[in-house]
Amino acid sequence: MSILGRYVLVWVVAVLTLMLATSLLPGFRLDTSRPGSWLAVLAVPVIFAVGLIVLRPLLVLATLPLNGLTLGLPSLLFNGLILYLAAKTQPAFIIENYGDALLGIFVMTAISTGITAWLGLDEAYPFFQSIIHRYGRRFGPRLSRKPLRGLLILQIDGLAKDHLETALQRGRMPTISALLARKSHQLHGWHCGVPSNTPAVQAGMLYGERWNVPGYRWFDRQAQKMRVVSRPDDLRILEERAASRGTPLLAGGSCINSFMSGGAAKRLMTVSAVGEDTSKRRKGEQADFNLFFLSPYAYTKAVLDTAYDFFAGLFLAVVGQLDRSRPRLKWSFKRIAQRSVANAFLRNLSFFWLKQDMVRGVPIIYSNFVGYDDVAHYSGPETREAQQSLAAFDRRLRQLRWSCFRTMARPPACRSVSATGRTSRIPSPA
Question: Which residue segments constitute the domains of the chain, with CATH numbers given?
């Protein structure tokens, strides 16, 4: 599809989305008594897009610290404000108040996400996304030479080979199934060794050396204290041990949502990098956070997916408590909220950063996805909840492939791995 045809198609989708939102929301109204009222429906999406390009960057940059503290809440509020102002330019199209405009943003994003996915489009705002990609090239690892082909490593934490095969047989992961059918990729099982947990496996995978990595928690006899890898200072001790005996796999590359960094030049949401005094590198990492908040589509979709995952998790938890045939772990609102952030928000955030790094030409990129592991811990590895998490990952992988084949001359080689697996068992009563 030509660039012009793509923009026209996106504009048509925006018009249809606005019409559907008008029929669904009482605060949206088209005054058909005014002459040229239908022209307003055609014009508002264009004015809204122009407002996003002109106003949104200024508003987001003005509230950068607040964006970081509130996970981008001002960015979401700005979308509603820009839509409300866009409607004010067209007297025939009426949005009653700002609250209706904010609600409309959620409804329109949900509708446009479904339509663009059905049409095979990976972005509802391609021009805005191209600006973000162009600006994002200023940040990230600086390459001494252009690599012939990059490597993309995606880890689905906690996924056993048997459970992956179950998901493939049930049709939950059509993208990976297609890769296997075309024989461009192969499925292999492997033994992760002992201890079978993520820190030890990451040490072996990212440094080629898991010596003296005892596990997730351990007692330090020299310091006479209990250590745990969720504490950055404790984890850095383990990583220094692995790095002293091995070679960093991610040198000059990027690491996303991981325990260990693997020597990456850029470390986004990496536990061992928290608290490091490296202001120069942190500037580039902060820029990637801001680019995510700057994107009108990516951030709003992440919030929607997180809200959907929360209510779906709440419903399934209640149903699970009523089903006495299979015991489950106790649930709470806090627990479901944590699950929705890990399973939905972090997945959207990680794929956004993956796309940014691929456009930059980063030679090697590693990202860990913890959503399935988090869900499987509490509901079981083969339950509907866990399978839905795998299906959501597969959909985002398909969109990432569409994007890289459309924007890159030489897409990177892609490898999907899992650190550890698990076996279904009935939990013992406390």
Answer: 3-121 (no CATH), 149-417 (3.40.720)
